[in-house]
Amino acid sequence: METLNKGNIYITATSPQAIYEAYFEQFQRDFKHFLKSRSNELKVGGIMLLTFMGRKNAHDFSSPSSVIGMALKDMVLQGLVEEAKLNSFIVPIYGPTMEEVRQIIEIEGSFTLQTLETFEMGWDFELEENVSDSVVDSKIRGEFIAKYIRSVYEPLLTAEFGNYIMDELFSRFAKKVSQLLEVDRLEYTNLVVSMKKT
């Protein structure tokens, strides 16, 4: 997969269709297995409520993974990261669309879908809830986002790229996020799914 998605650690708008298909097929296998396993734990008529990150539409792949990929590309160009390492690294996260989730639930067959909705939250939702925009500029918001994204991604990235680049990588990530926040509201799309065991 790395040669097909060269220079990217995640799905991007320029990724070949085969990359999208590989991510979706893996998600489909995993989600079907998850549904079957949960079905075995519930009585007929039992309700399951899930919430997880997804995406608005089939062409929306904006995520922290994409921004980390941009920062890593810059570091490759400056000789701080080996290009071969970037090309062989893939973030194993997939955010499905509502339609993909609906399709998998129907095909797997253990549950009847009751509700399927989305809601958006800013990448800095915790900060947004506690302070007003007039107090916090995009630089502070970028640094805040970088800190919690680092807590999630660092172990995965360290295994491939080494610990020594993490400070520089997330400093660059914070700057890129700050720049993006100047022109766009960075949001997660979250899916809420309610279903009943058949």
UniProtKB/TrEMBL annotation:
Coiled coil: none annotated. InterPro entries: MeTrfase_7, MeTrfase_capping, SAM-dependent_MTases_sf. GO terms for molecular function: metal ion binding; methyltransferase activity. Keywords: Magnesium, Metal-binding, Methyltransferase, Transferase. GO terms for biological process: methylation. This is Uncharacterized protein.
